[in-house]
Task: inverse folding
């Protein structure tokens, strides 16, 4: 195995890398609005049954991803609880598609994004929000002009974490989205394939390297943001 | 006109607040020891907290009435709340902080323009800075400016003297006086520091354990034992109004004069021509412990300030005796019980109050 072989990506591998980034990007983008809203709600509001909501949000963190994927399949599969109506009424077939890969990533990344964003919102002194209100701002204006900018490092960190988690997503994806080259076969799934085939160790090693480098970069970036958040205090 | 009238009741754990307030225009000092409910009162007025029962009228507008479910949100109450720590938005420059509330304010209700605020509070060179790089006093001035630009009908100041350096804490006072003179906006100034509060206003509102213990002029209040009791621990103070008579730049001296006393009080102090013009009025503090009482005028003594007056009341508290002496205005003098007995002082006794000019603290 030499250096050239390590960088000599096959077309399928490049496809998997490209797809991984597309899935991760859209996962992080789509996850941001709901996780910012839910984080704010959990950070600032006190209500009955809050711990149930928290438990539910955190479930994908401890549930085997394969189980998460299975739940998604049961709910959103073509014959699933909700999926069958999506199919019958709107002709939408979610399972085993690019969007299924994005959705599977979103579900498993959600608790991580919530954690980072919620922490950053909790660290925003509510006194600033009170000040904004006495100055005439309503709740939405206060949120946009005060809370959001002050929590920004945490929100970016949440975005990066969701992105990174999505790059590593395997279990839920393979169950709910399948392992279709060019459509749902992300780096981990391609890696899994290569490991299965004798003599493909070099290819597996190439993908492993890509996975390590990008996951490391994303996590370091996220750590830097968290440090910046603490520093601001 | 009433600036604010309210009747408020709230129970918070072991603490309960039950007050009736009626503030007129001008500056009112809200004084009380820590835990007396000052901040809760401010929160209730501003709407950051809501009472169990009560009503609030700001100006002539009803903003809260628990009986008929009237509740105006904090942002609609038009109250300029200057928080103890300023609470400037750390992610914005001073300029953006100042302008934060003005976008929500009705232009017709603005009481002051941006440039006027900047000049009045002397914060022009801070405009592009971030709050982080400001000193405590600067931060507070910006917070006041920000509140003024939100078109308030009432200004609430929470402990404006407490977060500052002791040497600098009183620097905020001339700004507050300036704002009051120029804008005429009613101000409630909350503090647990009586001497600081007195250098700003003599209209006081006393709070203890969530109850009103007195409301009115300082000199009327000290004649009531209950009020005196609350104020005593915080440092009683005489506040005497002086006029700037002249500046002697050459010798570095400023002459102050008070004509309300039994005889004119002339005081020469280090030059203060950078902040006060001739004819300006300023409050001067004098500690009750720094005044001596004699029965006769003393000629062979260096102390020239010897004010003649009559004792109007004697109040004994533990081992101290407080004499209220009318010397044209009321002075409170603290002496020992032994002195009082030896000199046979009583209400009606004619006395002279002696104090050194250096004992006067000029509040600028």
Result:
């Amino acid at each position: 195995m030499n250096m050239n072989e390590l960088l000599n990506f096959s077309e399928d591998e490049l496809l998997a890398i490209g797809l991984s980034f597309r899935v991760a990007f859209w996962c992080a983008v789509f996850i941001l609005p709901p996780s910012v809203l839910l984080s704010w709600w959990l950070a600032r509001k006190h209500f009955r049954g809050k711990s149930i909501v928290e438990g539910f949000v955190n479930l994908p963190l401890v549930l085997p991803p394969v189980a998460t994927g299975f739940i998604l399949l049961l709910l959103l599969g073509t014959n699933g609880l909700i999926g069958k109506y999506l199919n019958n009424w709107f002709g939408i077939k979610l399972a085993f598609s690019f969007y299924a890969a994005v959705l599977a990533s979103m579900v498993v990344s959600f608790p991580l994004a919530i954690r980072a964003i919620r922490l950053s919102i909790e660290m925003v002194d509510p006194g600033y929000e009170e000040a904004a209100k006495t100055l005439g701002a309503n709740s939405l204006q206060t949120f946009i002009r005060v809370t959001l900018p002050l929590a920004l490092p945490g929100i970016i960190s949440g975005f990066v974490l969701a992105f990174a988690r999505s790059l590593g997503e395997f279990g839920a994806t393979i169950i709910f989205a399948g392992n279709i080259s060019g459509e749902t076969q992300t780096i981990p799934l391609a890696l899994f394939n290569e490991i299965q085939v004798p003599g493909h160790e070099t290819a597996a090693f190439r993908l492993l390297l890509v996975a390590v480098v990008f996951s490391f970069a994303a996590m370091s970036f996220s750590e830097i943001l968290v440090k910046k958040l603490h520093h601001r205090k | 006109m009433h600036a604010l009238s309210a009747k408020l009741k709230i129970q918070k754990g072991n603490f309960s607040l039950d007050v009736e307030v009626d503030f007129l225009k001008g500056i009112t000092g809200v004084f009380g020891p820590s835990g007396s409910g000052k901040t809760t009162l401010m929160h209730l007025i501003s709407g950051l907290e809501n009472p169990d029962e009560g009503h609030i009228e700001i100006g002539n507008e009803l903003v809260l009435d628990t009986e008929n479910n009237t509740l105006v949100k904090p942002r609609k109450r038009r109250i300029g709340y200057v928080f103890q720590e300023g609470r400037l938005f750390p992610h914005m420059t001073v300029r953006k902080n100042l302008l934060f509330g003005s976008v929500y304010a009705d232009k017709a209700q603005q009481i002051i323009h941006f440039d006027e605020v900047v000049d009045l509070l002397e914060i022009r060179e801070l405009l592009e800075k971030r709050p982080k790089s400001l000193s405590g006093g600067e931060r507070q001035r910006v917070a006041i400016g920000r509140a003024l630009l939100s078109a308030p009908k009432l200004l609430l100041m929470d402990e404006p003297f407490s977060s500052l350096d002791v040497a600098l804490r009183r620097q905020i006072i001339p700004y507050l006086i300036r704002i009051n003179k120029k804008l005429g906006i009613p101000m409630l100034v909350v503090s647990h520091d009586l001497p600081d509060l007195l250098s700003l206003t003599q209209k006081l509102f006393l709070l203890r354990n969530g109850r009103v213990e007195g409301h009115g002029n300082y000199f009327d209040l000290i004649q009531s034992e209950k009020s005196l009791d609350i104020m005593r621990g915080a440092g009683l103070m005489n506040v005497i109004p002086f006029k700037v008579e002249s500046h002697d730049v050459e010798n570095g001296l400023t002459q102050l004069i008070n004509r309300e006393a039994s005889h004119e009080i002339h005081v020469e102090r280090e030059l203060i021509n950078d902040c006060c013009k001739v004819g300006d009025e300023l409050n001067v503090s004098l500690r009750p412990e720094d005044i001596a009482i004699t029965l006769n005028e003393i000629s062979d003594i260096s102390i020239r300030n010897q004010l003649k007056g009559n004792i109007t009341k004697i109040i004994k508290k533990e081992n101290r005796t407080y004499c209220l002496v009318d010397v044209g205005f009321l002075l409170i003098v603290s002496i020992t019980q032994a002195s009082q007995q030896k000199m046979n002082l009583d209400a009606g006794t004619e006395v002279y109050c002696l104090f050194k000019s250096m004992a006067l603290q000029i509040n600028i």
Remarks:
- The domain at 239-362 of chain B is CATH 2.40.50.100 (OB fold (Dihydrolipoamide Acetyltransferase, E2P)).
- The radius of gyration of chain B is 22 Å.
